[in-house]
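Late entry, written up from scratch paper. The run itself happened at the end of the previous shift, but nothing got recorded in the book at the time, so transcribing now.
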Amino acid sequence: MRISDLLGEAVEQAVVLDFRASDKAEAMAEIAARVARRSGVGREYALDSLRRREALAATGVGDGVAMPHARLKGIDQALGLFLRLEKPLRDWSLPFQIAPDGRETPASGDDAPVDLVFALISPEEAGAQHLKALARISRTLRHAETRANLRGAPDARSAYLLLTQEPAASRAA
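Output as recorded:
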């Protein structure tokens, strides 16, 4: 699975730069609205599914990146959506645990505020395919240079090209 397969060809529907969100809930509502427009599923259904998944464990993966995801009835192929937030959000950071001294510390990774969000929506029955798509997104966003370039991308088309370029080593993955 390629990132371009997830994002599709309509860049303006799949890549949003400098989205203004005051919190994670507002960003998730935008993701759900865009998923509804692209897939035909109900916005509330998409939002509820994303919220239920997020309640299991925060989808912030570190380095300012979050990968909210859900599997939905009523869609026949996986789709992706990339948001670069205008202002990083702290409430999307990794889940916290209480250290022995009583301080809150990140459970894993870091607690960097999130400004890069790649959402994945897959068909309900797409178990292994969903995981492979998450792995592809993760491999793309784990590179510091890619993240820096996405943060500096001047427009959605540039960000799309950064996300969809396939290094030779990852094409076989």
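Confidence is low (pLDDT under 50) at residues 104-109, 168-173.
(Scratch paper discarded after transcription.)
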